[in-house]
Structures are given as C-alpha cells and as structure tokens.
## 1
Amino acid sequence: IPMGLPFGYQEMDKYLLLKEGEFYATLSHSHTGKTTLNLWLIFLSAYKYDWGWVIYTGENRTASVKMRIIEFYLGENIKKIDEFQFQTALKWINERFFFVNNDNMHEYTDLLKYAEKVSKYHSIKGLFIDPVNALKRNDKVNRYDYDMAMYTDMLLFTKRTNISIFLSLHTRTQSQRERDKDGNQLMPFPADADGGAILYNKVDIFVTMNRNIQDRERFMFTEIYVNKMRNKETGGDVTPKGSAIILRFDWQVQFVDEYNKLPITRKKLVQPEIQYTPATEEEIQEDLGGIPF
C-alpha cells in the first residue's frame, strides 16, 4: 500500500496527504474559498506528482477555472502574463486536466462514467466534483436513499479504479447563519453538510475549512481541520482541537503556510530566441536579380 504524498507544507503534511484511490470531502460555507483551495491542492498534485484530473465545476465557468490554474502555474496575475507564458501554461493544463461541460446539470453517475472513460486514454488520478449540491438529483428517490447510494457508489468507485475523488460541499443554511461575537461565521462541523452522517461514514478523509471574509486583517487566511482520516497507516491524522492548519492566499496566485513557505519552486519560462543569420551581400544581389521589375 503506497504512503500518502506530501503537499509540501510543514504542518499540513502531518495531517493531510495526497492519496490514491481515496474519497475526500471538503465542507465550507459559501464564498469562503473552498473551490480555490481545492484547485490549489489539485494543481500541486499535478505539478509535483504529474497527477491527471477530471474536473466538474457546476458553479464556475470552465474558462475562469483554467485562468485560475494558469495563475497558479505561473505565479502571476492573468493580466500580467504575455502570450508565450499563457500558451505554455495552457498547454500544460490541457495535458493534465479534463473538464466536464457544465452547460447542463449532470447526475453523479455521469461524472463517474466520464472519469473512468477518460482514464482509459489518459493518466487520471483524481476526479473533482464542485460542489455536490450542484448535481442533478433523481426526484423519484427519497433524499436519504439517494445520498446513501451516491456516496456508496463514489466510495466503491475510488477503490475499484484507484481514482481519488475530491468532493466539495456547501453547509446548510442554519449553519451559515451562526456567528461568533464579532459577526464571523463559525467553523462548520461534518454534521452541517446535507446528508452529513451518511457522507461522514462513507468518505475516507473529511475536511472542514473556513475563512472570515469580513475580517479585514484575517480575510486572506484559511483555517483547515481534518475531521476524519480512515487510513492512518498510509499517513495523515485528524487535527487536534483548536489546532487548525493555516494557509494564506498570497498575491491571489498561491497559498503559503504560516511560515510563509511555498511548497513548489516554479520553473522559469524562457521564450526560445529566433535564430537569425544575416544574408551576405552576394545572397542579397542574387535575390534582387530574380525580381522581375
């Protein structure tokens, strides 16, 4: 059984690792950055370990997701990069990430089938579903039975194909209303997810995260808790109470840890120089002699 792979952060790597064939769930309130955080971890898996991914983002346009990953790859805002950098990054992305068309809603079974189909032709290690709340549901089946079947199928899919699933979820409305004395939303618990108990039982790794978006001093800091780690023998563990993993969104293009460490060293892109050899006087005269006027 292979050990989990480190993302490259000193504190995170004690608790949260990248594992093949594992079912991950990330729960957070709306608009707190769970898509961006998940995309960053997905980017790290591709950059450090060459993982390929199938990506479904039901609430974000594919173009905007690609632009975000381009910024991750280059470490620059999309408005500051040149055409050569853009095309180089886009080529890298298109070789590793395969996006599900989100013009229409899909059932979870559509995504599992598509990921398995793509994996026959490309090296796919992960499937990102963001968020599960955006998936189409079968109204003929009651919610409990549907959630039980969906999460069971997802778990079985990861074990059968060895493709990991990153699943993101919004919290329930009641959880989003709860605030601390300063008006900030509280860190959610696994039970704050729709189908929380079912999902918690099925996933291998359950993560909750929060970011106080209205706090002017702390809005760029994301707090992460690992609430469940099923297979501790391959690395990772639950985070102690009150000891969140903290990452800071740096310059809107990368996450650094509390020690200001970035887990990658980006390769410098250098545009190939055009090789030009000046023509000799004899070659110029010969060319001129062939002009019919």
## 2
Amino acid sequence: HLHLTQPKGRQARVQKTSIMVNNFMLTAFLQFPVSFGDPAANFRKIRDIVDLARFDLLVMPELCTIGYFHDSREALFLHAESALDGPTAQFLLQLSAVKNATLIAGIAERDGDQIYNTAIVVSRGRWLGKQRKCHLSRIEKLLFTPGDSFACFDDGICRFGVLTCFDLWMPEAARLLVRQGAQLLCCPTNYGGPWTTQLARIRAMENATPLICANRTGVEMYAGAKATFRGESQIVGPMGEVLTSATEETSLGLSIIDPAAHVLKANPMCDDLMEEAGRYALSGPGPQLKGTNHI
C-alpha cells in the first residue's frame, strides 16, 4: 500500500510498502480542509495535491468544492451548479484526462429549482454520470432534495457504486449496489462523529467488497458554534481490514485492489455471499427508492 500525506510546514511524502501491476488497480482517497464557499481555492488544492501522484481511481469528499454548512437553501443555491457541464464538472473532466484516471467528487447539483447532494463521476476525460445522495441528514433535508435510485458505474477497469455519507448508514443501499455487481464501493463523506468510520468497515465486511471512504478536515461555523470535520479517510478491504488511512489533515491515501477478485463475494464462512443474500428482498425507505439506471 502507498500513503502520501502533506503535513503542515513540510513537503508531501510518500510511504511505499509494495507495488503491484498487471490487472491490479491503484485506488485512492483525497482528504483536505475544504475552503468554505470558494471553489477556485479548492480546485487549486486538489490540483496541487494530486499533481505528482499516480492512481487509477480517486474518491474526494462530499461537497468538496463549496463546504457543508450553508445557512439557507437560498445561500446554497448560489453555489449549486450543473452536474453535466458546471465549473466542477469541467475541472474534473480536465483533471481526469491529465491523470488518465477515474474521479469521484461531491457537489451541490442544481436541476431546475431543485438542489441535490450529488457525486459526479468522470473517467479519463469522459463524463460517466452522477449519483444523487438518497438519504439526507436532518440538516440536509432543509437544503437538498433526496435522490431516488442507486446504480453502478463501469470505467472499463472496475464496476463500482457510490454512496454519499449518510447513505452508508443504510445497509440496503450498499447491498443493492453489490447485488448489481459492484466490485468496489466509493464513499464521499463529510462527518465529524466517530460512527461513520466504523460503519464503513462494517459495510465492506458484510458485503465482502472493498470500500473507499473520503472524508474532509477543517472547521466550519454552524448555529454559532464550530463544527470540526473528523478526517479518518480510509480504504478498507473486503473483511473490514484497513488497508490505509489518513494520519494528517491533508492526505492522499492509496491502496492496490484486484477488481476481478471481488466479482464473486466470498468470506471464510461462505463461497458465494450474494447467493445467500439473494434469499432476501431488498426494502428501501419508500416506494420511490429502487435500483434503476442513472439519470
């Protein structure tokens, strides 16, 4: 595994313990302190951190270009953008072409008069699609419209699904994607409490599927108090083992996975976990939530 961090006052460093090639895939998370309401500053941070790095797939945090705690829906609407050709989509398309990689990053998506908490997925200069967050926290329900479907992406190397932060708290959401053939779960997040760090490991283990959780760091103001984002980004293996995790405020963590090894879901007790899981009908929070193709 490789882990690149950028400590304060020092040059970024790379720790190398093993390098694999052939059909293996180098996956990554990017953790950094997001500048609130300043997309241009966040674009610069992202570009600078990944400049010298190599990876096949990179997951960035939820709402990683504008920050999280917006005072009102009207204030957030000023930062919302098209997921297809807005400033963030254009930035990611260009960066993905330069890095020859797949990128996943969270934005506030404007669609008519609705705002969605959305992850954009681009690959090697091509727009693959978007995944809207389906499960909103109490605060987010004041700002966003929930998504209504989950579906997998395929970048030609790996088939993967995207779960944004609180989506991880729903076992059915991850299971739905894995039953659709996801070989990897990618999770842009913004959280401060300790629970999501543990949940990410549980979701990986109960689905026998690697998982990338990209959280942010930094502090924002909410209701007159400081809200601190926890970091603790991680790449987790199919038995819930931590392959690499962030140790600095700004971290680029990397780990190698073999997508082909995670087509058939197995663990020490079961040769085909999804055969067993298929005995259960999936149930969402409402009749509108179903596994369909992306919009």
## 3
Amino acid sequence: PTAPKNFPIETLLIESTYGGRVREDFDVSLKKFEQDLARDIKKYNTIVQACFSLDRLQKILFYTIDMQKRGLIPNNIPILVDSKMGAEYINPYLNEAKKMLREASHPSVPDQLAVNTKNLENFIDYLDPKNKNYEVISTETRAGILGELDGKKKIILTASWMAEGGPVVEYFKRFADDEKSVFYFPGFLVPGTRGHAIAAERPEWKEKIVTVEGKTFEIRAKMEQKSGFSGHGDERDLLKYLQSTNLKRDAHILVVHGDTKSSSIALKHTLERKDFPQIVHVPDLEEIYTVNFDK
C-alpha cells in the first residue's frame, strides 16, 4: 500500500518483522511449497501444517485444495482443519472474496485494476463448506477421526501457536516421534519457542529431544519451517511505503513490531544509511513515547 499524500506526517509507527531482510518472490515460495508437499505426501502418511489461525490457515487451505484440483496430490487424501478460530474465520474470508469478486466484475473497474477473478472464484469454490473439499474437526471428534485414519495418508491444518499451545500440541504428542509424519510451520518462529527449537530454518539449530507437558519426545518426524506466506512486508516493501509518505523533515519514525536486537535495529540502520532526515527510534519494551499534537 501507499500512504495518503494530502497531509504531512509528524509521527509514524512502522513494523519491522522483516527489517534487514528481502524475501524471495511469493511465486517462488509457493512453487517450493507445492514441490515439497507433492513429494512428502508420497513418502509420509501424515502432514501437519501448523498455521496461524487468521489468514495463514485459510491461505494454506486454499493452496492445498488447489493442488488436489490440479492433480499435484491425490484428491482422495482427506484434508482436515483442526482450529476453532481458523474454521470460524473461513466464512468472513469467503464473504470478503465474494465482495471483491463483485467489485472486480463491475464495468467501472479498469482492466489494469481488476484482481485475478479466477483465483477469487476458485477460493470461494474450494473453501465453501458445502462443497466438502475439507473436513472441520474439533476437540470432541479429533480422536475418533484420527483413529479411523490411523496408518492412512492425511493432511491436517491446525493452529500453530509456534508449538507452544493449542491443538498443535496434541498432534505433536501423537506424531512427533513418528518417522512417517511431517510438520510444516508456514510462518515466523520466535527464537525461544518450541516451534523454533524443532523447525528452525538452519538444521544445526534444530533440537531432537523436546519435553511437552512433562513427557520427553525424541523427534523422528520431519520438521520444516516454510517461508514466503507471511502478510508482513519485507525491508524492500517497508522502504517503498516510507518513500510514498509525506513525512515532515523533523518527523519521528518509531520502528516497532520486530526484534529490537535484530530486525528493528536493522531497519533503523537502513533508514539512516538511506539518509532519511527524520529521527528514527526503536522504542524499548514499555517505553512511553509522547506525541505532541499542539504544534
């Protein structure tokens, strides 16, 4: 997005999740994801995709079903959604997609501004519960359904919580020591969390012995972090946004929502190297910053 040009900005807060990093193009990440999933479903029985409940789960669900529709993975493999919040937010996403489709189809919309209507149509078709492309399971039905599918191939999308809590812990206890299982973590994993310990991008960081609820597991399942699906902008996107703003020369830029020792400070240094004249500050935790609107 770009910022409105019709008013000057005195104080701007900008996130820094990917400060100091430029990610590969999404199409490249999606291609890798599809190749990995198509390969792994042939070799393993269970694939657990531990997603953030909002946006990430719906996105991964769409691309997984799309792979079945295109014949990249067998269409008889059940896709299970085990996330109460993630399942509840499928309908709001469907409603927004329908709204976008109506707007994109309006004759007043120039061709160059129209979204990819085919993707929207597929999203609505694939995620509509009545089309039965996936099954929603719950705490009450989980044991019975997994029992029926024991030893059979299945793809499960569940809430992530970076493997610290939620239903993914139940799948961890059930499949972490199973050599025929795979866990995907399509998203950021904070250092210090269980998810980062078992699925960090660098293999030398991965731990093989993990304790969950007092029980020690030797990890035999394949654990992988998947990049490219984040809704956060990388450093290139953040710079583009800042350059689109009408920042006053004496404005303050507060760099937030990042690691104050790495990504946030990296973005701060980039802005200083790029000769942004504004004051760039990385606030400390619980720091109070006063904005003066009386100028």
## 4
Amino acid sequence: ADPAEITVKAGETGDFGKLTFEAAGTYEYTITEEDGKLKGYTYDTEPKTVTITVEDDNKGNLTAKVEGGEGFEADTNTQTITNTYEAEGEITFEGAKVLEGRDLEDSDIFTFTVKEGSTVVATGTNDDGTGKACGTITFGTISYVLNKEKDETGDHTYTITEDSITIEGVSIDGASKTVVVTVTDNGDGTLKAEIKSGSDKIEFTNTYETGSADVTLHAAKAVEGKDDSTAEFKFTLAPVTTGAPVADPAEITVKAGETGDFGKLTFEAPGTYEYTITEEDGKLKGYIYDTEPKTV
C-alpha cells in the first residue's frame, strides 16, 4: 500500500493506500499501532492480522474478500484499534486551628470531616504527628480519576466540619466550611484540581471560657480592754489589682465583737487579685483604731 503508514486522530478513520492484486491467492497483512508514548495513553501495539483472499472467476476477473479478527468490520474493510486514556489527580486542603482564651495544650486535639454530599472523602486533625496538638490542620488527600469507567472532572463541592469535642471549657466551632474544587484534564495523564471558591486555608476557631468564682470577704471587730457592743466601726474593702471586681457593698459597719460581710466578689478570669481591708478612724473617745490596711 502507498501510503502504508498513516496518522489517524481519535474517533476518526484513516485510509491506507489501495492494494491492487494481479493474481489469485491468499494474502496476509498486519496492521500495527506504533507506541506514540503520549502520557496517559495505553497503546494497543499487538499486530492485527487481515487476510485477503483473491479468487479468479475464470472469466477474466479477480475478486477480493477481506477478513480480519476482533475489531474488524468486513463491510467497510476497517480495523478498529482501541486505546485507553487514563488520568489522575489529587488535592489536599490546608487548615488552621485557632483557640481563643488560652494557648493550645498538647492534649487539645481536634478532628474534622470532609464530605461531598453525604460521602466522607477525607478527614483532618491538628495532631502534629507525635500525638501533640498544633495550630495546623492536616487533611487527607482527595483523589480524582478519569478513565473509561469514571469521569471525575468538573466541580466538586465539599463541606468541612469540626467533630464533637470533650475538652472542658472549650466550645466547638459549629460552622461548616464550604469549598468548591474544579478538576480539569491536562491531556497528559494528569488532572488539575484547584479551588474555585472557598478559602484555600480552612480555619476553625474555638473559644475557651471559664465559669465564674464567687468569694465573700468578712471583717470581724475585736475590742480589747472594754466590752461595749454598742460601738460601731467602719471598714472598707478596696481592690489593689487593676481590673479586680469591686464588692457591693465595699463599705460596712460592724459592732464590737461581731462580724460583717462585704458584698460578693465574682471573678470571671483566672489570676491573682489583691485587696486591702482598712478600718476607718471613727474617733470614738477611748478607742485606738487599727487603721493599717490589711492585705488579702
């Protein structure tokens, strides 16, 4: 045939040169695909045998009958060569774990779930790989394929949520994060996966909150040298530490030999708080007042 080598595009048909037979007989040919080494393609390089039987009708005419094996169409004398194209790709989300209210502790490990629809496709954790918590969330890889059975190109919508936690004082970040990934075929056996919408670094923020602590301070009045329960003495409770809660009442009057209560102090945050309790000089005759502030 001339030409005996042809180039055919995918899905099309190419013609070899015409074969002219001058004598009856059986003629065998092979049609072989060259390995073009295009990435992603599997070539069918196994030669396909085509047999042409030429007969003499004894009337001065030759007739040709063409036969082939699998994939040969006798009506059109066409041998079909089938190739396989496959492509793969993947994406791995990045994430950040933020804890407000205190620093992350080694045991503050959170887990996360990535779903496409109702299907779990990946999970994540802020475990640094040694069993300790860190501020980076590591997600599993999501893979995509394109082959004759499955075509995962196109848009994929994912929802990422934080799993339930049992860390005392820490609230869960209940907001789901949505990320849309577009997958396209590069034509070389690879798929490109890139974020179409949503953050390229998924952040989950938790808050650490403590309960309040209540303290009630008291002032007791002791009088030495005289027993007079009618005398009254005034005391003031004053915060020394900036931002410390203030008692209400912060000033009380206590009779000799009795105890008085300042207003309740409610603490909303851990820390060390300093107060002074000071007796006012009531200038009652015969009494010596202890006006030196007492630190609590």
